[in-house]
What we know:
Blueprint: H1 6-10, E1 40-49, E2 52-62, E3 67-71, H2 78-84, E4 95-103, E5 106-107, H3 115-121, E6 122-125, H4 137-147, H5 154-167, H6 171-174, H7 187-199, E7 205-209, H8 217-230, E8 235-239, H9 243-249, E9 252-257, E10 266-272, H10 273-278, H11 283-289
Parallel strand pairs: 3-8, 3-9, 6-7, 7-8
Antiparallel strand pairs: 1-2, 1-4, 4-5, 9-10
The structure holds adenosine-5'-triphosphate and magnesium ion (MG).
Amino acid sequence: xxxxxxxEKAMSAESDPTPSSERAERPNAVNGAAVAELPLRSRDLxxxxxxxxxxxxxxxxxxxxxxxxxxxxxxxxxSTYLRSLNRMHELxxxxxxxxxxxxxxxxxxxxxxxxxxxxxxxxxxFQRPNPFPTKSIAxxxxxxxxxxxxxxxxxxxxxxxxxxxxxxGLWNEVKNRLNAPAGGLSGGQQQRLCIARALGVEPEVxxxxxxxxxxxxxxxxxxxxxxxxxxxxxxxxIVTHNMQQAARVSDTTAFFTITNExxxxxxxxxxxxxxxxxxxxxxxxEAYVSGRFG
Length: 294
Ligand SMILES: Nc1ncnc2c1ncn2[C@@H]1O[C@H](COP(=O)(O)OP(=O)(O)OP(=O)(O)O)[C@@H](O)[C@H]1O
Ligand SMILES: [Mg+2]
């Protein structure tokens, strides 16, 4: 069936490499959803910087209407893994991946997949707010569709700007200065604008790498509220160093670590957030979540 979505355009018709056995209705470990229909999952995904294996063999599933927190000590590969999920890792010279990341049943690394369309379907928000500072607030929101060469009428543009800024919880603060440069917004507002920019192309998944680490506590809480609102329409994966934040915003938590020096980062344990914090199965998870290392 053809729906003309960015995802579909990203994939050539015969590009789905998922073996039929994999597409069977195997229940998901966390919420029972059928695996073939999951928004995103990785299978045996490894991340290299040249010869250096930074992250090894991560198999992880990201469910509809849910927030997954990636936690673990500095250097264990959270950002590297996250960037691999929308093919941004490969933008670093000599960096590459092995294994699979599967977006709605189709491997994003498959030959014929268009990385630009994949990054549209799997958006990203970074640690430091990075709006285009000299562009207007409205033009920042419209940057995604413009970059994707989506032609919009004037009224569609107006609607998209309002709808998206409302979605990012920023509309009331900026509705009277949509043509002002984005660089004039506070850090928290800039981060919400970046979220709006990512939402402007209606992604399936939003990857967030410590999106609050440069923000004050008030702005942090606003972003956390926003994450809760957004999860109804976009699957969210968030890297955070803040255990309270992981506990507040996520449904599922995945713990990564480097067990022995010189080894790559690995996924140690994944489960429902409450369970991960109150009753982790692995002693390494227990040590980390109780603050004994990391
Ligand atoms: N551009 C790069 N080139 C080479 N190696 C890199 C690069 N970026 C990261 N690495 C290495 O990959 C490993 C994982 O780094 P990464 O930044 O993904 O960790 P992290 O878990 O996100 O850490 P933090 O919590 O400090 O952000 C580290 O050994 C790091 O040195
Ligand atoms: Mg990082």
